[in-house]
Amino acid sequence: MQNGEGQFALPADGKRPVQGGRPAADGQPLEQSGRPEGGERPEQFERSEGGEWPGQFGQPSALEAMVRVFERAQTLLRAGEFGAARKEAQAGLDAYGPHPGLYLVLGRAHAFEDADDHDKAAERTYQMGLVDFPDHLDLLAAYAEFGLGGDALDEPGRVSRGTAAAARLKELAPDSPQAHQLGQGGQLAGRPPEPGAVQRYDARSALADGVDARAAAAYAAEAAAAWPYDRRLAVRAETLAALARPTAALARTRVRFPQLHFLAVAVLGAAIGLGVTALRLPALLVPVAALGLLPALQELYLLRAARDRAAAGLPADYRDPAPGAPELPRATRSERLTGALAVVVALGAFVGVISWNAVRAAEYPRYEASVPESVRGIPLSKGDPMSERMVSMLGRVDLPADAQPFSGLYRDESAGSLLMLVGVAGDLHDENPDRYFADMRRQLSALAAEPSETWTVDPGELGGRMECAVMESAGNEVTMCAWLDKGSMGMVFTGAYEDGDRTTLPGLTRELREATLRPEDPGAA
């Protein structure tokens, strides 16, 4: 089980955690070091001609003490202890005077805080360092990277000064690694990982290969007790203690298999989203997809609480962190593929749902409109001037380009029956039913036909929305029913029925509507 080294090693053989320093690849112990990549000390720290470090056989010299301060500050910076790194670097500058490495650590420890006051302090630090060491490549590169990382609109001065530092770097050493990496847009000194990412990695490493959570928590507690000043060990111990609880099974699974959980949530959300959209499954299934997020929510809560408890338990007088803290590795190929697959599934489902809904929203049932010759034995009155006037009124209304108006007057003189139908078929998918019926009531009021009663009725097989009303016009009571769907709208008028009769005209309206409108695609209606 690869769980890091030193105090970060959680052995799988049941032995106590290693108490020593970080072992090298050949088994020989290595000292904890904050040296630059490559393992070489800065030029300012070279041995004397005799091969000894200054002060090697007596009290440490100022130069050797400065080396130790620099390496300690660098170690704190890499551990994410920005405040302690700043304190150490500033103490070294105050005690031993200007040094490019200490300026570099101090500037980065400010810049990594990502706050306005720290950004100003970082720029002041870089500028002070370049006053003492104007041609130092690492300082120039760090200042250039810091300046170019600013917002050109909000901080044009910072960006301009970063550009000048980059130009100076290229002028001094155009083929240097610093100039090459800056030109490629890469980070010269990567920001330490976010605490949450480190916490998840440490917990996942401890629980790898099916290690029992309670055993891992016990090992982590011993390591944290051996190094009580190490924040990372304390956070790991609190995290594993929380994940070892029986109630933390969901969060524990999420920590162990984050990419698989992401993929499972994406597949579940895609299945439900497309099912509700395409197969018209109940919309109540949508909240079920949110249940897949419960492990992530529990993990987030437990890990944040663990970090808070660890921070509260750290001693006030901060000291060196434990040696051998492993760096976060890059994601494996299988992890990247799983994550990419989850993203593809999620994006595909999202685009599919949006596209499907957009197409469905723009769709409307196409009708062939032709009024019937009779309805319930009442014949169609052809050539009636009232019907012609209704058609001419529809011509003055703003109708869709493909609108097909229709109207009909059904009169039975012997029975005293009168029905008037008027409507239009076309693309009405953008028409808002609430606005349509509100406008209809307003127009009726303007014609001195104020509705005294309105109610909503079943629209029938063609769907949409249908409302009926009783109104008074010219001293006579009139009953009216109107409908609206994405492909048609219309109204049916007749004389008043007996009080309380709310079924006769709605039934007649549904019959007339279904007899007049024949869908080209029966499923579209």
What's the short version?
By secondary structure, the chain is of the alpha+beta class.
Q: SSE layout and pairings?
A:
Layout lengths: L21 E2 L5 E2 L31 H17 L3 H15 L3 H12 L4 H17 L4 H12 L7 H17 L4 H7 L11 H12 L6 H14 L4 H13 L5 H8 L1 H21 L7 H5 L3 H20 L19 H30 L4 E3 L4 E2 L2 E2 L5 H11 L8 E9 L4 E9 L7 H14 L4 E7 L7 E9 L2 E10 L2 E8 L8 H13 E3 L6
Antiparallel strand pairs: 1-2, 3-12, 4-5, 6-7, 7-11, 8-9, 9-10, 10-11
Helix pairs in contact: 1-2, 1-3, 2-3, 3-4, 3-5, 4-5, 5-6, 8-10, 9-10, 10-14, 11-14, 12-15
What does this structure look like?
The longest helix has 30 residues, at 333-362. The protein is of the alpha+beta class and 525 residues long. 33% of the residues are buried. A hairpin with a 2-residue loop joins strand 9 and strand 10 (476-485). The strands form 4 sheets. The chain has a 6-stranded antiparallel sheet with strand order 6-7-11-10-9-8, sandwiched between helices. Strands 1-2 form a two-stranded antiparallel sheet. The protein is built from 18 helices and 12 strands. Helix 4 (116-132) runs antiparallel to helix 5 (137-148) and helix 9 (213-226) runs antiparallel to helix 10 (231-243). Mean pLDDT is 79; it is low at 1-5 and 12-58. The chain has helices at 62-78, 82-96, 100-111, 116-132, 137-148, 156-172, 177-183, 195-206, 213-226, 231-243, 249-256, 258-278, 286-290, 294-313, 333-362, 385-395, 433-446, 504-516, and strands at 22-23, 29-30, 367-369, 374-375, 378-379, 404-412, 417-425, 451-457, 465-473, 476-485, 488-495, 517-519. The chain crosses the membrane at residues 260-278, 337-356. This is Tetratricopeptide repeat protein. It comes from Streptomyces polyasparticus. Residues 1-58, 173-196 are annotated as: Disordered.
